[in-house]
Structure formats: structure tokens, C-alpha cells
Amino acid sequence: MVIQIFDKHFPVKFNFYFQIVSLILLATPCWSLAQEFKDFDIMKDNIEFMLPPLETIIDSAIAKNPYVKFRDLQIDINNSKLKGFKMDWTRNLGVQSDYLYGTFDNVSSNAAQGSSPAMLTTRSTQLNYGTGGFIRIPLYDLISRKNTIRGARAEVEQAKSYALEQRTELRQIVIKQYNDLIIKQRLLKIKIKYAETAKINMEMVQKQFLNGVVSLADYSSISESVARSEAELETSKMDFKTAYMILEEIVGIKFNLTSK
Length: 260
Fold this sequence. Notes:
Elements: H1 12-27, E1 38-39, H2 47-50, H3 54-64, H4 66-86, E2 93-110, E3 118-135, H5 139-210, H6 216-251, E4 257-258
Parallel strand pairs: 1-4
Antiparallel strand pairs: 2-3
Helix pairs in contact: 3-5, 4-5, 5-6
């Protein structure tokens, strides 16, 4: 599908760019736009089929986790340090220049054989300059350079190990929370069925109690059982909602599931 705009006031280039943008938007998956809300029936639908694939969820968590970013930045810092240590030898090489400008008194002597020297003084404004290179070979740098570079490389490998460990821990956290959300939904289904059954039994027992078939003690016991099932159902609902929200926070995206 291509959307075209034909207007004499719009140049041809605008129509072309608009068509390209339209194609890109139409080719983007709906769930990735994070704008579409999906209807979710707790009793009929399985939560794992309503969410993106587990690997996609893990990748999103890794990409948006601040601790992973911190570990990656530490690798960059240590790599920069290693490059700096490798270039340390250049500080012992250099070029030095001197520039002097001003009024100078120049004294010279001229002595002929067998006579006293004649002193000649002149004053002039001039520019004096000189340029030369230098090289230093500090003994400490020669001895410690190898150990310094080895230590810097070890810090880079250490940072990489920390980054890998952070990713592994985050993967485990996402997997645990993902499975916890699934089990919370299954438990919620059981609690809903149990609460519905208890409610039906309560209606039957209530009629029997009014007809004098069921004693007050039995009626009270069943009432307590119904109240307990309703309380457990509310707890299970909140546990499911909490697990769902925590997974969204860990992953850094909204799943946009709506349920009655």
C-alpha cells in the first residue's frame, strides 16, 4: 500500500519521500510500535503466547539494562587506558623550539698579532630562534613497560568478564520472572474456578439452610470457605499483576495486554 499526495503546491520529491516513510511504517510489526493493545482472557489465553518470544524479551532487557551499559562502558575505558599505555613511549620523544625577540648588545673583539684586542659593541633589534629534537630513555619505563601493558590487558579482560557475568545474571532474572508470570496465571485460573465452584455451592447450601436441611454450623463452615476462597483469589490476582508489571520493568517495554 502506497499513500500518494497529488497537489500542485507540493514538489515531486516530497511525494517520493512520503511514500518511502509510509512503506517503512506499514512494514513495522505492530507490537514493536508499542501502541496496539491486545485483549487478554485470563481463563482462555496463555500469557506466554500473548507476549513476544522469550529471546526477544531477554534481548530487550539486555539492551536497556543500566548495569549492562555500565559494564560495557568500563570495557571502553579500560581499552582506552591500554592504548594510552602502549603510546607512553612517545612522551620521551619530541621537538623543542626557542624564539627570542628583542634588543641585544653584541660584543666582539678584533686583535691583531702583537697588539691589544679592540672591543666593538653594537646594539640591534633581532629575532633569535632555534629548533632541535630530543629523546629520553627513562630506566623505569624500560623496566615497567611490559608489566604495565600486561596489567592493562588484564583489566580489559576483567571488564569483559564482568560484562558477560552481568548479561548471564540478567538472562536468569528474566527467565525466572517470565516463568513466574506463567505459573501465577495458572494458579489464578485454579483460584477462579475454585471461587466459582464455592459460590455455586454457597447458593445451594443457602437454599437448603432456609429449608432447614442444612444446620447453622455447616452453613457457617461453608460461608467461611467461600470467604477464604475469595480472599485467596484477590491475592492471586495481585500476585499475577505484580509479576506482570515487574517483567515489564525488567524488560523495559510495555506488553499492552488488557483483560477484563
